[in-house]
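Discussion board: Methods & Data

I've been asked by a reviewer to show the raw model output for two of the constructs in my manuscript, not just the figures. I'm not sure how much to include, so I'm pasting the format here to get opinions. Each protein appears as its amino acid sequence followed by a line of discrete structure tokens. Is this the kind of thing reviewers expect to see in a supplement, or should I convert it first? Here is construct A:
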Amino acid sequence: MFIRNIDKRIKILFLLMIILLILVIIKICYIELFEYSKLNNLAQDLWSRNLELKADRGKILDRNGKVLADNLTTTSLILVPNQIKNKKQVTTDLSKILNVSYSNMKKHVYKKTSIERVHPEGRRLSYETAKRINKLKHSGVYLIKESKRNYPYDNLLAHTIGYVGIDNQGLSGIELQYDKYLTGEDGAIKYYSDAHGNKLTINDTYVSPISGMNITLTIDINIQKSLEREMNNIRDMFNPDMALAIVVNPKNGEILGMSSLPSYNPNNYQKYDSRILSRNLPIWASYEPGSTFKIVTMSSAIEENVVDIFKDHFYDSGKVKVDGSTLKCWKAGGHGDQTYLQVIENSCNPGFVKLGQLLGKERLFSYINKFGFGTKTGIDLNGEGEGIIFPLNRVGNVELATSAFGQGISVTPIQQVMAVSAVVNGGYLYKPYIVKNISDNTNTIIYENNKVLKRRVISSKTSSTMRYALESVVAKGGGKSAYIEGYRIGGKTGTAQKVENGKYLSNNYIMSFMSIVPANDPDAVFYLAIDNPKHTAMLSSYTTTPIARRILLDIIKVLNIPEQSKEITKDLEWNDKVTYEVPNVIEKNYEEAKKLLINFEIIKNGTGNIVSYQSPKAGTKVEDRSRIRLFMK
């Protein structure tokens, strides 16, 4: 009986062992089939180490493919302390090469970590330094590839592009706004070591880094170079507190150029004050616009049919009283009787006070809001300002009057440019943008910006009238210094007195000029502002308009704007140079040629009576009384 019970127990135990063995086999099969990858990764984590390979940031390019932000390949120092055999020698050698103290380098070499990045002394090493380290052949000392951001045009478009930190992270501008697109995926060299850090004989694994995506801007580098050149001229001539310029395509809201002064070099951003680095003036600065804002008031008045600018008249005595406040015209004694077209040509403040009164505060401020003032434009850059517009319940007669000619309110340059774009493009207010598209490493476009219409503000008829009025300002009014013969240029000057602690400063102005080209069908709206220019008369004819003219000539060239013969003829002043187009007198007799060349001085060569050749050639524009040489046969 006892033996029988033992046999039974043995059989049960044997059965349990068989069941346990089956369970173990099932578990092993499960691990091999379903858990192998996970456990293998966990195991490799225990004895694998990664030497990180930093990915290149994506490039930033202008609309023509010119690279504005690129990468330079550099080398960085990585240590694996457990692999270093002679720590004292390594510490001595590296401290000499990197020009750091022995104690400082010792902290890295003797550190109890699997991988130690020598920061910052070992980052972005020069070629010569990396070569010297490589010659040491010390175990545990590695040199790995690292990229450094490079801006080949230095200050060009600095505030808009922005800059990156030591670890290639975007800190400002496009670099910050689109950091997640520009940042690539880091790679690594994976090697294997035991618990003591000794390298195993298993082959290293190379994981290639993937570069970030490329961003193409709407900026045209040739227009941008023109802006930067003139910013430097403004700095040298006028030593202003600040200056800014912006060029936009009014037909879709693309930013073609944008510049600020003071500027900085993003390759060495650490040398500059944070206030310079953070302020992209064309979108951040907020100030009283002055007379450039009269474009908005005049457009509103025309749209509401309160005046016919060609027929209706206004008499300017030089000043107007509003609720006890005297608002003066810049011209002592006033302009007398004038049409409202002449009111904008002459930039007559009392005339615009009258327009504001005719509109009333509800209608005027309704248009101010429709044109986008008081709210952000939504441009795809960080740091945009909003400006300050009077709430309607705080608008009295004086506030209505001053707002009508651009005083007492605060606006940003980008708001002004987009509002004027709406004035001249048929009445359409667009959202501005500066990123054209984003593409991957195969040049496949993954995102593309398109124009965004916010609303229509005025009619095409009003827009057409305003284009004529602005062209007339350049031909006959305060913008004559920006006149370009053969091209239709429109514009409006502005002189805004600055406010500090609630009081207007004396002899401290923001001089500005808003322009369009060509005036009949604008391809570009251009705004220039100079804050507190020194060593010059406070007149746009001496400051903004001559500089604007040079930039407009560049814009005309870059955009291939054809010459036109129907521009409004400029009213000449005593110091203006008169030019004439040389007529064709070849094959005409000398008497006929003399009649055609009445405005020129003729130099006759030869004894014949028929003109065989002339210099300059027919069609050339030269100044009055220029010499024309005729060759006779």
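Construct B, same format:
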Amino acid sequence: MQQDEYEELLQKYKAKVKEEFGEDVAKASPKITSKEYSEFKRELYPNSFGLFEKACNFSEKFLKLTADPKKAELMQKDLDICHLNVTPAGVTAFSLLLPMTVMILGAFISFAIFKMMFFVMFFLIAGLLMIPAISKLPSFMANTWRMKASNQMVQSIFYLVTYMRHTSNLERAIEFAADHLDQPLSLDFRKILWDVETQKFSTIKDSAEAYLTVWKEWDKEFVEAFHLVESSLFEPSEDRRLALLDKALDVILNGTYENMLHYAHSLQSPMMMLNMLGVILPILGLVILPLVVSFMGGGEGSNPFVTAIYIAVLYNVTLPLSVYYLGRTILSKRPSGYGAEDIGEKAGFKKFKNVNLNFGKKLIVGVNPMYFSIMVLVVGLIIGFSPIILHTLDPTFEIQDEQGKVKMMEYVCTPEMPNCEPLEKVGPYGLGAALLSLIVTAAFGISFGLFFSLRSKNVIKIREKTKELEDEFSSAMFQLGNRLGDGIPAEIAFAKVADTMKGTTSGEFFNLAERNITKLGMGLEQSLFDPQVGAVFNYPSKVIESSMKVLVESIKKGPRIAAQALLSMSRYIKEIHRVEERLKDLMAEISSSMTSQIKFLTPAIAGIVVGITSMISTILTRLSAQLATFANTGGGGVGGWADMLSIFGIGIPTFHFQIIVGLYIVQITYILTVLNSGIENGSDKLGERYALGKNLVNSTLLYCFLSAVVILFFNLFAMKIMVTSLS
């Protein structure tokens, strides 16, 4: 390790000397390995950002445009934040090329298939709206990048301070932080080092200062804390140097709490708007929608299936996209917090994201949860769409009770075509078909929920166990620091701490490390970081890993230096945990409100609305059929009433309406869960997947159960009313 550092330092000085004498520096520059910025970006850069980068570069070659200078300057800042190798002109070209493609192809294909101007207008309007949306995409991506990065601000300062306490070297401290942080902030820190390597800046301080200008208007506390870390380099007194490092962490912790306090207060109005526009008003709109549809269905040439398409475009495309956009806007303003690590992406833990089938001690087969989800979805769709499938195969097929009151299919003729052929009938309006449509909704909700649940179930158990260790680790580090302060070697100190904390997760951690030393003959570093049996490997946590790396580094300078480092880290971890708990209290009210919306209110209201729609549809269908029969048998007076009532049409089948509403419930549950997880925990993909697994399954099942009960009750009630009134 020392030899590598020596060679690297030697190459730098050689390059500097050659530069001063005017020689070609490119040939003398140190070799950039896979650990450097460019390779790191290619390996861990988000796929969506990479696709956007390629699309913009392609569009710029295809359309030669010039961006507005004022907008281009602001856009370039956003592009730099995301590390996108794109010009504002490329974004402008892409914002025109893609919408034009959508408008032309979408309008042409939809008209060729449906022969309806509605879809032509829809794609034209959608394309026009896409132009400003894509133009703002760099800003949206930059805000997303800022949110993810801001969740790691406290951790980054923690790692810098931790390393600087025992080694006052800013470049090594930034490298240490970059190794322990996840992207995107790890990519930012590597960019700081990269700019010095490529001689864009002459010193690490200049490179860091250029990076900090990005955060001056977004997170002043992070900039101030970073400057305090830099200032510690120039303090001749050791006590003053350590005091500045302590002050840096205090500044970012207090700033984080104040920012989250302001965010929690300002969140009330946007969340109320999101709740009203995305949940309350659409659900209330469903109550009167059946009557509106009935009036719409009364025109000549009307088709309930076409009406269902209109409603689906509104409820399954327009509304979810609007709510998602509004939710992401709210999340983009979230200040720094504590984004948890997705340990499922770490080497050695990816197997836990699969369903592991045990066929013996030596044979364990990992199956991707996607296969189970696809199987559930396909089977559910086949069963749910069986009324349409059966009608297509045999238009005369029907299942009904002895009196013919309760039918499964119930395909009927429209009032405009009372004597239509079986294939021309519309539906299904039957009670059996309405109940079977619930299986379609259940298939979507359960299949997606099952995927997220199986994908996260095994990994979340490991993280929960690791969380227990993190909660206790402050006390464990304090005890270990005291033992080392007495002059005891680290190997013996591990055994003593493990014995003192016996029965706790911390005790298990140190006991595992001590067993590796005594029974397997490992050294201190190997007992902790061995990729197979190391204690840190079994408890994957960045905080624990960095603490143990600091221990390994500082123990080389003596037990007392290591003791001071561990005691300081113990205090830091305790402070971070305290602020984290205070932040959870701030978000508790908003989080509990959204949780109740997801788990009960939205599915319950929607289930009742679907039942009411089913009753109205049954009454209109039966009434229209009965009046048409009376009119055809010669009742002139009744025929006049039939003509007047034909303005109502026969309404949309409950089968179609329920599927539309059911899919909306699945979509809104997904969006609200992602939003709730982001507000409460920041960027936490593992926690988000786990919450999606629970909420999608539970909300969908609750909605399907309530809908089935209300549909049965209201339909039987409607049939009884119809029999009484017509008799």
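Answer (T.O., handling editor elsewhere):
This is acceptable in a supplement if you add a one-line summary per construct. For B, something like: The chain has five domains: 1-31, 43-135, 171-266, 268-341+368-418+428-461+590-726, 463-578.
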